[in-house]
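Encode chain A's predicted structure.
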Amino acid sequence: MFWMVALLAVDGQQYAYRAYAPDDALTADLFWAAFHCHDEGPHPRTSDWFDSAVIWPSRQTQQI
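Encoded structure for chain A:
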C-alpha cells in the first residue's frame, strides 16, 4: 500500500508525494518521509508544519 502526502510550499503550490508504508503507519512518519523527499528535489521550500499536510491512503490495484 502507499500513502499520498500533499505539502504546501512557500510558492503557494501544493506538492504531492507517494510514501510506501504499511496500513498502520504513523502519520508523522509519512509526513517526514515526504518532507525529506521534497527537500531533495528542485521545488521551493515546503512548510514543516505537520498540520498543513494532507495525508490519505491509496491502495494499489493489481493488473492482470
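The chain has a mean pLDDT of 84.
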